[in-house]
Amino acid sequence: MAKKVRHVLGISGGKDSAALAIYMKDNYPQLDIEYYTADTGKELKETYQLINNLEVYLGKKIIRLRAFNDSPEAPFDHKLKSLGGFLPNTLNRWCTKSLKLDVFERFVGNDPVISYVGIRGDEAREGYISSKETIQSIFPFRQSIWSEEITKFVLDNKKIGATISLAEKIVKSDKLDRIKEILNFTVTELYTREAKLKQLLELSTRDFNAIAYELLKLSNYPISMEKNFPLIDNEDILRIEDIFGLLNRSGVGVPAYYKDVEFEVEGQKATYNRSRSGCYFCFFQQKIEWIWLFEQHPDLFSEAMDYERSDFKWNMEESLSDLIKPDRITAIKLDYIKRKQRSEKNKKSAKLLDILGDQNDADLACASCFI
């Protein structure tokens, strides 16, 4: 007897994954989605509050996954001890792999899985894609809901004949001839797969999705086991402003660490916030975010300092103890204000989220593997 396909959605504690959970409940209530979060034990309290708020809205438990259920220690500390005190860094992100990705893959096992990922329509990235053939990622916020792997499968030059035949059966509009014409183009170095996909999606997202779905039914991908897949008709493209709108309208609210906090330095006023979810000592944080942590969560900043040693600093350029010296705080804030002003002159958003780059639901940050 064939296994039932599991639909899963990871909550990182960031805005995008939270908004995706709301979006899926509101628009696809027929899908029995399992919501989960991988807890390192080193998240901000605002992250746990967001998860609690989401559970109320979803009316469903968000499964808490932990790497070491039999240990009373926080998963991060337990893993750190097992590695003899070797702390993670940008070159060896064992925190992401051991405490997030491995935990997720154990959670789903060998079951066929469709994983919903909150990459927005205004982002040019894939996020975490599992190497397991039993896990397939879907991106509801983007114009293309398919991963690059699926796009490559569908638009393989060897499948041109098959896609054209499917188009003739599926497409009922006057766009058929143009769709067939585009499908017949061979992908080359000059005419890339990305260009071909863009043309097809702009012509008719629904028709391309339907063609892709029918072709995937002949594959071993998890979606081939679904008799119907409602996201085939999805033409939504959600951007940053849509995400904040979803969170606010639902009552779940924007994670508190994204909210602007005002500060003043040498007579100049500005605001700062945190740009990502994830551990409070994440080494991908910008210096202004470390200052935010020091001033908004001094207890957590102190704990982050305790991890540092003579041979290890969270911020490779300087220790946290040096970073919070009064003159250094002033310099960091003034530099941040200058960058903010330059951004405003260029008519870009002045929010820290945009200045630093909205590297969520983690993909530089560990959380992004689920967002």
Key phrases:
371 residues; alpha/beta; Rossmann fold; 3 domains; two-stranded antiparallel ribbon; 15 helices; 7 strands; disordered C terminus
Q: Could you please describe the fold and organization of this structure?
A:
This protein is an alpha/beta fold. The chain folds into three domains: about 5-145 and about 235-250, HUPs (Rossmann fold), CATH 3.40.50; about 145-230, no CATH class; about 260-345, no CATH class. Helices cover about 45% and strands about 10% of the residues. The chain is built from 15 helices and seven strands. A five-stranded parallel sheet has the order 3-2-1-4-5, with helices on both faces. Helix 7 (about 175-185) packs antiparallel against helix 8 and helix 11 crosses helix 12 (about 300-305). The longest helix has 20 residues, at about 325-345. The protein starts with 5 loop residues before the first strand and ends in a 16-residue tail after the last helix.
Number of helices: 15
- The overall number of domains is 3
The major pleated sheet works out as:
5 strands, parallel
Strand arrangement in the largest pleated sheet: 3-2-1-4-5
Rg, rounded, reads 23 Å
Q: Can you name the CATH architecture of the largest domain? A: 3-Layer(aba) Sandwich
CATH hierarchy, class of the largest domain: Alpha Beta
In CATH, the homologous superfamily of the largest domain goes by the name: HUPs
Q: What is the name of the CATH topology of the largest domain?
A: Rossmann fold
- What class do helices, strands and sheet pairing give? alpha/beta
What's the mean pLDDT score? 91
Assess the beta-strand content as a share of residues.
5-15%
Report the count of strand segments: 7
Helix content: 40-55%
Q: H/E series, N to C?
A: EHEHEHHEEHHHHHHEEHHHHH
What gap, in angstroms, lies between the N and C termini? 32 Å
Q: Note poorly predicted spans.
A: 353-365, 367-371
